[in-house]
Write a sequence for this structure.
Protein backbone atom coordinates (compact mmCIF):
# COMPACT_ATOMS: atom_id res chain seq x y z
CA UNK A 1 0.00 0.00 0.00
CA UNK A 2 1.26 3.48 -0.86
CA UNK A 3 2.51 5.57 2.04
CA UNK A 4 0.94 9.03 2.00
CA UNK A 5 3.50 11.79 1.64
CA UNK A 6 3.43 14.90 3.83
CA UNK A 7 4.03 18.50 2.78
CA UNK A 8 4.44 21.16 5.43
CA UNK A 9 3.56 24.54 3.95
CA UNK A 10 4.04 28.09 5.16
CA UNK A 11 7.65 27.63 6.28
CA UNK A 12 9.12 30.97 7.39
CA UNK A 13 12.19 30.03 9.45
CA UNK A 14 14.96 27.46 9.58
CA UNK A 15 13.92 26.06 12.96
CA UNK A 16 10.53 25.00 11.67
CA UNK A 17 12.03 23.68 8.44
CA UNK A 18 14.50 21.44 10.24
CA UNK A 19 11.88 20.27 12.75
CA UNK A 20 9.59 19.26 9.89
CA UNK A 21 12.36 17.36 8.13
CA UNK A 22 13.49 15.68 11.34
CA UNK A 23 10.01 14.30 11.93
CA UNK A 24 9.63 12.98 8.40
CA UNK A 25 8.21 15.69 6.13
CA UNK A 26 8.72 14.88 2.45
CA UNK A 27 8.29 18.43 1.19
CA UNK A 28 8.40 22.00 2.49
CA UNK A 29 6.30 24.81 1.07
CA UNK A 30 7.29 28.48 0.84
CA UNK A 31 4.60 31.08 0.21
CA UNK A 32 5.59 33.83 -2.24
CA UNK A 33 2.25 35.62 -2.10
CA UNK A 34 2.69 38.93 -0.30
CA UNK A 35 -0.84 39.24 1.19
CA UNK A 36 -0.41 35.93 3.03
CA UNK A 37 0.42 35.89 6.73
CA UNK A 38 2.90 33.15 5.82
CA UNK A 39 4.73 35.09 3.14
CA UNK A 40 8.48 34.59 3.11
CA UNK A 41 10.96 36.67 1.15
CA UNK A 42 12.94 34.91 -1.58
CA UNK A 43 16.14 35.86 0.24
CA UNK A 44 15.07 34.18 3.48
CA UNK A 45 13.67 31.16 1.65
CA UNK A 46 16.95 30.73 -0.22
CA UNK A 47 18.85 30.83 3.07
CA UNK A 48 16.57 28.16 4.55
CA UNK A 49 16.86 25.91 1.49
CA UNK A 50 20.66 26.10 1.59
CA UNK A 51 20.59 24.57 5.08
CA UNK A 52 18.31 21.65 4.30
CA UNK A 53 19.55 18.08 4.07
CA UNK A 54 19.22 16.19 0.76
CA UNK A 55 16.06 14.47 -0.51
CA UNK A 56 13.63 17.12 0.72
CA UNK A 57 11.40 18.60 -2.00
CA UNK A 58 11.16 22.39 -1.90
CA UNK A 59 7.93 23.89 -3.21
CA UNK A 60 7.19 27.53 -4.03
CA UNK A 61 3.57 28.71 -3.85
CA UNK A 62 2.52 31.50 -6.23
CA UNK A 63 -0.83 33.18 -6.86
CA UNK A 64 -1.30 34.84 -10.27
CA UNK A 65 2.31 36.01 -10.31
CA UNK A 66 4.10 37.18 -13.44
CA UNK A 67 5.87 34.18 -14.96
CA UNK A 68 9.14 36.14 -15.09
CA UNK A 69 8.88 36.63 -11.32
CA UNK A 70 8.14 32.94 -10.78
CA UNK A 71 11.19 31.95 -12.81
CA UNK A 72 13.44 34.45 -11.03
CA UNK A 73 12.38 33.33 -7.55
CA UNK A 74 12.55 29.65 -8.48
CA UNK A 75 16.14 30.12 -9.62
CA UNK A 76 17.09 32.25 -6.62
CA UNK A 77 15.66 29.82 -4.07
CA UNK A 78 16.53 26.61 -6.00
CA UNK A 79 12.95 25.38 -5.88
CA UNK A 80 12.21 21.83 -6.98
CA UNK A 81 8.53 22.33 -7.68
CA UNK A 82 6.11 25.19 -8.32
CA UNK A 83 2.62 25.24 -6.79
CA UNK A 84 0.28 27.47 -8.77
CA UNK A 85 -2.58 28.58 -6.55
CA UNK A 86 -4.35 31.17 -8.69
CA UNK A 87 -6.13 31.34 -12.03
CA UNK A 88 -3.19 30.12 -14.10
CA UNK A 89 -3.94 27.80 -17.00
CA UNK A 90 -1.79 24.87 -18.09
CA UNK A 91 0.13 26.91 -20.68
CA UNK A 92 1.03 29.58 -18.14
CA UNK A 93 2.17 26.97 -15.65
CA UNK A 94 4.39 25.37 -18.28
CA UNK A 95 6.08 28.71 -18.96
CA UNK A 96 7.72 28.58 -15.53
CA UNK A 97 10.07 25.93 -16.88
CA UNK A 98 9.86 23.74 -13.78
CA UNK A 99 7.74 20.80 -12.67
CA UNK A 100 4.50 22.07 -11.16
CA UNK A 101 1.37 21.14 -9.30
CA UNK A 102 -1.90 23.03 -9.70
CA UNK A 103 -4.23 23.89 -6.85
CA UNK A 104 -7.98 23.63 -7.37
CA UNK A 105 -10.40 25.13 -4.88
CA UNK A 106 -13.27 22.74 -4.33
CA UNK A 107 -16.86 23.88 -3.96
CA UNK A 108 -20.14 22.01 -4.43
CA UNK A 109 -20.81 21.25 -8.07
CA UNK A 110 -17.17 21.17 -9.16
CA UNK A 111 -16.40 18.20 -11.39
CA UNK A 112 -12.93 17.48 -10.01
CA UNK A 113 -11.98 14.93 -12.64
CA UNK A 114 -12.95 17.29 -15.46
CA UNK A 115 -11.10 20.19 -13.80
CA UNK A 116 -7.99 18.04 -13.52
CA UNK A 117 -7.97 17.34 -17.26
CA UNK A 118 -7.30 21.05 -17.89
CA UNK A 119 -3.77 20.54 -16.50
CA UNK A 120 -2.32 17.59 -18.41
CA UNK A 121 1.27 18.66 -17.71
CA UNK A 122 0.91 18.98 -13.95
CA UNK A 123 2.81 16.52 -11.78
CA UNK A 124 -0.24 16.46 -9.55
CA UNK A 125 -3.30 18.36 -8.38
CA UNK A 126 -3.73 19.93 -4.95
CA UNK A 127 -7.30 20.20 -3.68
CA UNK A 128 -8.11 22.99 -1.25
CA UNK A 129 -11.27 24.46 0.23
CA UNK A 130 -13.05 27.26 -1.61
CA UNK A 131 -13.76 30.63 -0.04
CA UNK A 132 -14.60 33.60 -2.29
CA UNK A 133 -11.66 35.97 -2.67
CA UNK A 134 -9.23 33.77 -0.71
CA UNK A 135 -6.75 31.75 -2.80
CA UNK A 136 -5.84 29.31 -0.05
CA UNK A 137 -4.98 28.86 3.60
CA UNK A 138 -8.62 29.13 4.68
CA UNK A 139 -8.33 26.50 7.39
CA UNK A 140 -11.62 25.07 6.13
CA UNK A 141 -12.41 21.47 5.18
CA UNK A 142 -14.31 20.66 2.01
CA UNK A 143 -16.44 17.59 1.30
CA UNK A 144 -13.96 14.78 0.65
CA UNK A 145 -16.74 12.69 -0.90
CA UNK A 146 -16.45 14.93 -3.96
CA UNK A 147 -13.04 13.43 -4.78
CA UNK A 148 -13.25 10.62 -7.38
CA UNK A 149 -11.74 7.43 -6.02
CA UNK A 150 -9.74 6.90 -9.21
CA UNK A 151 -8.13 10.34 -8.82
CA UNK A 152 -6.81 9.88 -5.30
CA UNK A 153 -3.34 8.73 -6.37
CA UNK A 154 -2.82 12.06 -8.18
CA UNK A 155 -4.15 14.23 -5.36
CA UNK A 156 -2.48 16.28 -2.67
CA UNK A 157 -5.19 16.90 -0.09
CA UNK A 158 -5.23 20.27 1.67
CA UNK A 159 -7.83 22.43 3.37
CA UNK A 160 -8.33 22.46 7.12
CA UNK A 161 -6.22 19.42 7.91
CA UNK A 162 -5.18 19.07 11.54
CA UNK A 163 -3.75 16.50 13.92
CA UNK A 164 -7.33 15.64 14.83
CA UNK A 165 -8.62 14.85 11.32
CA UNK A 166 -5.62 13.86 9.20
CA UNK A 167 -5.92 10.14 9.96
CA UNK A 168 -9.56 10.14 8.84
CA UNK A 169 -8.59 12.11 5.72
CA UNK A 170 -5.90 9.62 4.75
CA UNK A 171 -8.08 6.59 5.42
CA UNK A 172 -11.07 7.99 3.53
CA UNK A 173 -9.38 9.63 0.52
CA UNK A 174 -6.09 7.71 0.25
CA UNK A 175 -4.38 10.73 -1.36
CA UNK A 176 -0.85 10.72 -2.71
CA UNK A 177 0.00 13.44 -0.19
CA UNK A 178 -1.46 15.69 2.48
CA UNK A 179 -0.61 19.37 2.85
CA UNK A 180 -0.85 21.29 6.12
CA UNK A 181 0.01 24.80 7.23
CA UNK A 182 -2.26 26.42 9.81
CA UNK A 183 -3.20 23.08 11.37
CA UNK A 184 0.27 22.70 12.90
CA UNK A 185 0.92 26.31 13.86
CA UNK A 186 1.37 28.09 17.16
CA UNK A 187 0.67 31.36 15.32
CA UNK A 188 0.53 32.27 11.60
CA UNK A 189 3.86 31.31 10.04
CA UNK A 190 5.26 29.75 13.25
CA UNK A 191 4.93 25.99 13.69
CA UNK A 192 4.11 24.13 16.88
CA UNK A 193 6.76 21.42 16.75
CA UNK A 194 4.82 18.97 18.93
CA UNK A 195 1.74 19.21 16.71
CA UNK A 196 3.94 19.08 13.63
CA UNK A 197 5.51 15.80 14.72
CA UNK A 198 2.18 14.32 15.80
CA UNK A 199 0.53 15.29 12.50
CA UNK A 200 3.20 13.52 10.46
CA UNK A 201 3.01 10.42 12.64
CA UNK A 202 -0.77 10.30 12.35
CA UNK A 203 -0.65 10.64 8.56
CA UNK A 204 1.95 7.89 8.27
CA UNK A 205 0.16 5.47 10.58
CA UNK A 206 -3.16 5.98 8.81
CA UNK A 207 -1.67 5.11 5.43
CA UNK A 208 -0.12 1.83 6.58
Amino acid sequence: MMVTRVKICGITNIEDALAAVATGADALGFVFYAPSKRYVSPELAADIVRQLPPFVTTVGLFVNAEIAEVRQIADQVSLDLIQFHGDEDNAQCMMAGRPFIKALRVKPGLDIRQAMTAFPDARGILLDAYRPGVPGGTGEVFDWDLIPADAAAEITLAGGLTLENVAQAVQQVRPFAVDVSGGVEASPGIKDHARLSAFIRAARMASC
User: Anything to note?
Assistant: The domain at 5-207 is CATH 3.20.20.70 (TIM Barrel). The chain has one domain: 5-207. DSSP finds seven helices and ten strands in the chain. Residues 67 and 92 are 7 Å apart (CA to CA).
